[in-house]
Amino acid sequence: SSVAITLEAGVSLGAMPLHLFGTEEQKRQWLPKLCAGEALGAFGLTEPDGGSDAGGTRTTAVLDEATNEWVINGSKCFITNSGTDITELVTVTAVTGRKEDGRPLISAIIVPSGTPGFTVAAPYSKVGWNAS
């Protein structure tokens, strides 16, 4: 079952958001390898001490206007597929602003594997689902 969850996470959490919401450029860059099974994508929502409540996201991101890149500060945990040899991206949720009513504006930002400052910790020691 751990192989099945790895593949399903790669499709539903890695490729599907790009297919549904990505720009044409993002689709051209990422989807061919993800759909061919040559690469995996991951999705980082869950945070230490915060769980998977998107509204409680503590990770923040600020757009660096000089480089036009997002600078993300925070930690995620329990990210299926984040540390494999073929993982090419992790889509990370982060607070990027506030709505008019004060609630956080949560964005999903694509972080390519190997991005400076992006580190993957050792996998958790689990009873099952060791491929996940």
Automatic annotation (TrEMBL):
GO terms for molecular function: acyl-CoA dehydrogenase activity; flavin adenine dinucleotide binding. It comes from the Bacteria. Residues 42-130 form the Acyl-CoA oxidase/dehydrogenase middle domain. InterPro entries: Acyl-CoA_DH_CS, Acyl-CoA_Oxase/DH_mid-dom, Acyl-CoA_Oxase/DH_mid-dom_sf, AcylCoA_DH/ox_N, AcylCoA_DH/ox_N_sf, AcylCoA_DH/oxidase_NM_dom_sf. It holds the Pfam family Acyl-CoA_dh_M. Residues 2-38 form the Acyl-CoA dehydrogenase/oxidase N-terminal domain. This is Acyl-CoA dehydrogenase. It comes from Streptomyces sp. SID7499.
